Amino acid sequence: MRDVVTQGHLRHWLVGAVFLLWLPLTRLFARAQGRGRENLATLSGPVIFASNHQSNMDTPCILAALPARYRYRATVAMWKEFFDAHFHPERHTKLQWFGNSFLYWLLALFFNAFPLPQTETGASGSLRYLGDLVSGGWSVLFFPEGERTEAGEIHPFQPGIGLIASRLRVPIVPVRLRGVEKILHRGQYFLRPGRVEVAFGKPLYLSGEDYPALAKQVERAVREL
Fold this sequence. Notes:
With about 220 residues, this protein is an alpha/beta fold. The protein has helices at about 1-30, 60-65, 70, 85, 95-110, 120-135, 160-170, 180-185, 210-225, and strands spanning about 30-35, 50, 75-80, 115, 140, 170-180, 195-200.
């Protein structure tokens, strides 16, 4: 038990130290307008943040907009399939593997991120780990689309978010991003200063086994923000 507590304190310290590096940079390039933080005021425990996905800058923008009590106790779910070159280098060129692996380790190190399969079967196998995170007081940030968009549009949410929301039984907070793709488009390599909006919706409490329908409900809440 002492080892678990020690690891938890170490993890919390590392997350705080890393944000001392990333927060100023994020706020320098992404001049954020936040909405809906009052929807988080009544929440006292871990939650799942479900956001649309525009850019590799989405995670730092969302975390920067969160109250400190959530910012420093958040972990980010990376869709494992996006990192196919990292996990299966034999399917890709060395250049693809290097770029994909570099991004994977960058997100894992700086944003406390972990891989999560999109498929229902794969997600089921990850529920125990997610349950341990939530039990330990960590909130989880998901991007249910599974990929970044080109021009700010929203793609259909994958059913995995419905499965996870139903099984973990924690509030789902919808998050809507606007303008982040202009800061760092999926085809860009350099940041461009600009304004972004991060909106937090009212928490959802989901149950049932129709996971595609539950995912659609989360998607609708994000679109309406």
